[in-house]
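CORE FACILITY INTAKE
Project code: CF-77B
Contact: R.S. (postdoc)
Sample description: multi-component assembly, two entities in total
Requested service: structural model of the whole complex
Turnaround: standard
Below are the sequence entries exactly as provided by the requester. Do not edit them.
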Amino acid sequence: MANERYNAAEREKYWQSVWEKGEIFRASEDPSRPKSYVLEMFPYPSGRIHMGHVRNYAMGDVVARYKRARGFNVLHPMGWDAFGMPAENAAMERKVHPGAWTYANIDTMRGQLKSMGLSLDWSREIATCSPSYYKHQQKLFLDFLKKGIAYRKSSKVNWDPVDQTVLANEQVIDGRGWRSGALVEQRELTQWFFKITDYADELLSDLDTLVNWPEKVRLMQANWIGRSEGMLVRWALDKKAAPKDFSELEVYTTRPDTLFGASFLAVAADHPLAKAAAERDPKLAAFCDECRRMGTSVADIEAAEKRGYDTGIRAIHPFDDSWELPVYVANFVLMDYGTGAIFGCPSGDQRDMDFARRYNLPVVPVILPPGENAETFQLTDKAYVDDGTMINSRFLDGLSTSAAFEEAANRLEKQSLGSRPQGARKVNYRLRDWGISRQRYWGCPIPIIHCKTHGPVPVPEKDLPIELPEDATFDKPGNPLDRHPTWKHVNCPICGEPAVRETDTMDTFVDSSWYFVRFTAPEAQTPVDLNAAHYWLPVDQYIGGIEHAILHLLYSRFFVRAMCDTGHLSFATNTREPFAALFTQGMVTHETYKSEDGLWLLPNEVRFEGEGANRKAVEVSSGRPAVIGSIEKMSKSKKNLVDPDDIIAHYGADCARWFMLSDSPPERDVIWTEAGVAGAGRFIQRVWRIVEEIAEAYPGEKGPKPGSFGPEALEVRKAAHRALDAVGRAIEALRFNVAVANIHEFSNVLQSALSKRGPDIAWAVREAGDLLIVMIGPMMPHLAEECWARLGYNTLVANEPWPAPEPELLVDDQVTIAVQVNGKRRDELVISRSAKSEEVEAAALQLGSVVRALDGRPPKKVIVVPQRIVNVVG
RNA sequence: GCGGACGUGGUGGAACCGGUAGACACACAGGACUUAAAAUCCUGAGACGGUAACGUCGUGAGGGUUCGAGUCCCUCCGUCCGCACCA
């Protein structure tokens, strides 16, 4: 018996070169064939690929190769999300140009991806930092501007007063700048926005059409858009204390039904009323400053302790002239949502409750929960936010929550304050317009020229692309484009007078909002080639991390609609959705290790002693004990990283891919373990041994199919065809771990059959071997090619069709069904698949275990579920 | 704070539409082969009791619906993710 081990390192390179020479993954439009566009989220070129990429791209490649085998014309491209802050940080820290750094990273990572053996069409490679890409993005921006989809307005940013720079939320740590440590301030800047809110309704309602998206992502997006039906209510302000020119305060509420439970009004620190009041009250001004220092992150604001400041201003209740309520400035009211002002009903909202308890404001219950008694009902510190019956609410008493909403809304609409209705129904969205301005160098320049006379003027299209200057400096913080000596100085396209370029660049989410469109015709002279887009779009299967569930996916959904509305894109089918099916894969995690001194250690800096509960880690360099920490997402900061290059060099790409697909369900996190990889490596050798044995025992062609098969041969054939069926269905459902288990199970059967002899077995084993190779093809493509060649074929598995299983091999004549007595399993029964219910019942009642369990009693009832179960109720 | 998810043996997980819980794999134990080791092959195993046949318990906790619940409903506990300038 030949017993040479499969040499992955050598053979993988060989097969990659065969695929590359044959250009077999190169895609082109072919209207005569059904298409399948398979896409994984393109990577940020951070330096090296990580295990998360390996997992993501292994999954996408299985789908792409499987679809090819099922006869689809597959588009499977790859590119680089190449603009972003890390390049600029690298420039500052290491004095490398962001472009040089990025392109070097791309070269490294392209090489790493190629070593994975992915079935990619590399001829379509895109880098978003290339002028040939962002030129078209600038054109799209100009057309959005013409259409009113892009506009300018003032908005707040995190400002580091020491570094004189704008900070991202992630650069603000506990309210301080990450480099300078200075307290962060908020500044108003005029910035560019995309009018995503115009599409809010469509983006929300079309979620229903995305049936092949995870339910949770659709839910998250729906909540993010946050449509609510409420009212704008205008409250008169008591003239005595109100600042000049402020006679009323408009609030947005979704709960006009709880108006009689109101005990205060609150405005955001940036609300005009707050600013006006702060001018005459230094303490209030200080409080507002403090609120602003919390940063721009909603999470920070809402997690902070509820605090407020009584402005002394009093508002008059819309339903009772004699009822005055205090107006606070509060740190939990967001200027960006609604009108930046609320009325607080402590009994009906937990935040309001917390606030009321802190400042000793009245808490009046206005909604009686079902089943409670109005006399005895009491609230402690927990608000009741659900529906019920109105109490303590005068003319609303006794109404349901929804009827009270209607009644209060109708009255407010009829009532006047000044000469206008006091209330107006209003649909409000949590979704805000998308601010795309970034005060950074390494992004797509916004093609605008600011003229003293003509304001912001679009760059003429003939002047596109506006390219980034190469000779920018990165030795100090701030925007390198802004301080560049010459770049921004140009003449106004209208009047020819000296003017300045926009020095802000676009949010990198813009780059990734249409790259999948560009992939359909990466060389087109216009942003999109409509014919190519019609053929390939939408993406049939999109795969990426759950962390993109909201922003990237929502922005992309918006962006393609905006492209459609500016004539840049249209779909062949009746949809405006870019991604027909979405799959979000889990993260790759690993144990963490720390030295005695509390420093993080890389996995290869520790070795292990003992097993199970006695397993201990030892620091290799010093021999001192190390601490085994929790299992966490692989990250540089915790050093729990495994380098894909090391794994591929040691075990091969197929092994890394196989392990990534095994065990853990793809949507869940996977724990990377040495033992797991080693197990995958063993399976590869096992497949190779099986194939070697088959090739030696049954060389040459399979020959004609025997007229009949003995029981042993039949068993092999059944196992093979069932696996084929099950693996196909598992891959279709992206349940790769189940597909792997099915292949394991089948290979166990095949391996035991190798020791048996006979012409029918020979044929069945040859057939089973062929099928095994086809089945592992999408997951371990190199091994599959090697085995295919070993079995004597001179074709490529990559070009082989996925065979159809023989239906008669998928069903058994006999079925095993469980027999329960009173719901407890007592026995099982092997019976003909076609047995009638009465026969099954009779057979079950004769079983000794059933008779014993019934203890002589006659059965009260027998439930027979054909081919499944019998339950005897006694 | 708001929103979303997840929880099954020593471990990762499987279980179709409510129908035999623990497939498959890892780790482990015993055996075969070997001078030996590695590799490979065979066998075993949820927990508890029992020589065994078998019995009882068992899917984070508690309750409910049902002939039957890992699966459906309610309450609770724990873990994780997102929150708009990270990508």
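Facility notes:
- Chain A is about 35% helix and 20% strand.
- The CA atoms of residues 227 and 313 of chain A lie 31 Å apart.
Invoice: internal transfer
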